[in-house]
Amino acid sequence: TEKAYALGDKDSKYRVSVLDFGIKKSILKCLIDRGVFVKVFPMTASLDEIYSFEPTGIFLSNGPGDPSVMSSVISMIREMLNSSIPVFGICLGHQLMALAGGLKTFKMHTGHRGINHPIINLKNNKCEVTSQNHGFSIDENSLLNNKNIEITHRNLNDNSIEGVRFLDRRCFSVQYHPESSPGPHDSRYLFDIFVDNMDFYINEIHV
Question: How far is it, in rounded angstroms, from Cα 12 to Cα 140?
Answer without folding.
Answer: 39
